[in-house]
Amino acid sequence: MNRFSSFLQRKDIVFSAKRYGIDAMSAMAQGLFCSLLIGTILNTLGTQLSILPLNEIGGFATSMSGPAMACAIGYALKAPPLVLYSLLAVGASANSFGGAGGPLAVLIIAILSAELGKAVSHETRIDLIVTPFFTIFSGVGLSALIAPYIGRAASAFGQIIMETTVLQPFWMGMLVSVLVGIALTLPISSAAICAALSLTGLAGGAAVAGCCAQMIGFAVMSFRENGVGGLLSQGIGTSMLQMGNIVRNPRIWIPPILASAITGPLATCVFRLEMNGAPISSGMGTCGLVGQIGVYTGWISDIAAGTKEAITVFDWMGLVLICFVLPAALTWIFGMILRRIGWIRENDLKL
């Protein structure tokens, strides 16, 4: 047992929820961002501006989503070079076999393949052959065996959420908005969760609402402590910056959570805000305005597909209110109430 533990330590193979559930998942989201998401944006720009090269570049980017995710996961797991490069093929196969639930299949299979590759790395005199062969063979083999089932399970669960949101837009809008918003602020990846579940439609719109409530809410509520720098770093960066303060005083989390519980149902019931762009956009909020760009690209796709006639003033009004105005106003009001009763003290939100 001690020899096995020493072997794992020497290979930097650490079985932990943090490494697999936080580090690897966050890296997967970055891989998706640098491939599928950027490719979707380029495709949209190319279509809207009639610039064919942008469509071609976007097509190349989106086609590399599987390899990009797997490579990012391998990097997060500190895979040696030969394992890291071999994961490109593993990511392509897992994403392909996984279908609509490809991102979750890539996450699981890339983790397994990376750790297996790390285990054999530098263990033979012909490492140049053995390590990539074993990594690719095990990864593609696992993809063929289990990726379809992982993909179908993830897709089915995401479909249940989306269909339930259509049937119960008020309660599901509130639930999805609150939970995805909380995930965004926690040191896990809400974007990866939304991508893994292929969360779009009304449920995607609720997810966008929840993420925006956290980011814009914390940015506005902490303006007196952090100024313009804090406003920008949280508003178009990430509300995860407040995690340390939340640990010290969990009550500071109440205002943005309450705001998300209000904006979620408004998004689903009143404005019928749908996020039909890349699913990863549902969990990005206002980070680089990716959530809003995702909603817009979804509108364009719906128009092209004939399911939407045009982008209306009501559409734009809903997007602005749900993503910016209401999160700012509601969180500020709730924050002032909590400051008055002493639940939030001076500098509790200082970054």
Total number of strands: 0
- Helical content class: over 70%
Number of domains: 2
How many helix segments?
15
Biggest beta sheet summary: none
Give the strand content: under 5%
Low-confidence stretches: none
What is the C-alpha radius of gyration, as a whole number of Å?
21 Å
Shape: globular
What is the average per-residue confidence, as pLDDT, rounded to a whole number? 92
Which structural class do the helices and strands define? mainly alpha
Topology as a string of helices (H) and strands (E): HHHHHHHHHHHHHHH
Note the gap between the termini: 44 Å
Write the layout of secondary structure elements.
Elements: H1 2-10, H2 17-49, H3 52-63, H4 65-76, H5 81-98, H6 102-120, H7 127-167, H8 169-185, H9 190-196, H10 201-221, H11 223-235, H12 243-248, H13 254-270, H14 290-305, H15 313-340
Helix pairs in contact: 2-3, 2-4, 2-9, 2-14, 4-5, 4-6, 5-6, 5-7, 6-7, 6-9, 7-8, 7-10, 8-9, 8-10, 8-13, 10-11, 10-13, 10-15, 13-15
Quick summary:
By secondary structure, this protein is an all-alpha fold. 77% of the residues lie in helices and 0% in strands. It has 2 domains: 154 residues, no CATH class; 173 residues, no CATH class.
What does this structure look like?
It is a single chain. The protein has 351 residues and is mainly α. The chain folds into two domains: 154 residues, no CATH class; 173 residues, no CATH class. 77% of the residues lie in helices and 0% in strands. It contains 15 helices and no strands. The protein is globular and about 65 Å long. The termini are far apart.
